[in-house]
Amino acid sequence: MTTKKNPREEISKPHVVNAKEDRSSKRLVTGFIIFAVLVVGLIGYAFLYDKVLKYNKPVAVVEDHKINGKEFNQRVRLERNSYVMQYNMIAAQMVLLGDNEDYVAYYQQQLSQLLSILDDTEYFGEYVLDNMIDEQIVQIEAEKLGITVTDEEVETLMQELFDYFPDGAVEPTPTYAVKPTSTLTSFQETLVAVTAPTEAPTSEAEILATVEGEIPSEEPAEFVVEETPETAMEETVTEEVAPTATVAELTPTSSEPAGTATPYPTATVYTEELYQENYQEYITNLDGIGVEEEVLRNYIRNYLVSQKLYDAITADVSRIQDQVWARHILVDSQDEAIAVMNRLAGGEEWNTVCNEVTLDQSGQDNCGDLGWFSKGQMVEAFENEAFSLDIGETSNPVESSFGWHIIQQLGHEERAIETDYDYQRLQSNYYDLWFQDISANFTIEKSDNWTDHVPSEPTVAYDMRIN
What we know:
Strand order of the largest sheet: 4-3-6-5
Shape: elongated
Number of strands: 7
Distance between the termini: 101 Å
Order of helices and strands: HEEHHHHHHHHHHEHHEHEEHE
Largest sheet: 4 strands, antiparallel
Helix content: 40-55%
Structural class: alpha+beta
């Protein structure tokens, strides 16, 4: 007997299968939606982090003062922009003087240096970050001394940077007049080939030619080319005095009717309105590279605070310093230095030995005479030996980063720093040592991902880059 299938069972089976497939399909759709939401969320968070969140995180902390990523990113852009502007200016000068190979070679060297700095983005970023950390230390120390900077002071310096002086240009401060503090003793006069130190340089060019060193800039830090071809290849030019014109020569001789002659152009008066136009144009350019105006003004403010702190710390540096007058002979090796010492001990004149063997090109004309100098002006090993000698005494060989020296002391006394340049350098050395000591007491932390905030823009346009 055959069993008949229940029609209802045959109909119900397909419905059971469809329900299972439907539930499975719903789970797949739900899973896909959740996955899609997660992906979109991750992408959105990544975008939000890259554009907003990461810039709110500190890249460095000085005590409890934070330097956030946005501030750091814009500061790097601001300083990169100054390098790019410097590059473009030098490139334009090179084009104008393209017929002179010496000028072109000089400018190409400067351009190559700028490119190497800009292309090493991480190094550039670290340089800026270290400066910002130093600025935080300066701010903290300035607050302790009650040093502040007003908005008016920021605006005044801003105007000066744009060559706008509504009250007239500031007159330079008179230089310090130094009177001789001593004369040569009879013993000094009897020293072999002793020539009195030359008078202090009177011009900036002479100072830069005779003394090496670095002095804080009078303006906010920007990349400055150390010298120009004009100073590097300076030639003596005889100045011609123009003849004095007579009244007849100044009288127009044209046969044209009076009033028809073309007038000479007159210089445009630099008004406040023109200054504002130039300033707004610059701010617009900064906005185009992602730098807010407030970042620029904070940069100016920090500079002014640092200058006030510098003046306060160095105010008590005395112009009267313990100084020595010395001369030296420079050679390559210790054996050569011993040979020089033996020749001098054997009675040979200092001038003769110096002119024959010294490697110091600047000392060949004056037999290695360095004049008077105070502590902090020479390399440490040389300075320590020079100050330890007695007048007329000659040292044993002394090694420095320049080579081997034989030093003779010609004088030792308290006397005034003769040039403003040397005094400013003394102040700078004093401040640097003070700042190093102060910085050592601060807790400074850099974040592990500060490099994520370093931009590579702005940079030199491709068609402006030299090979």
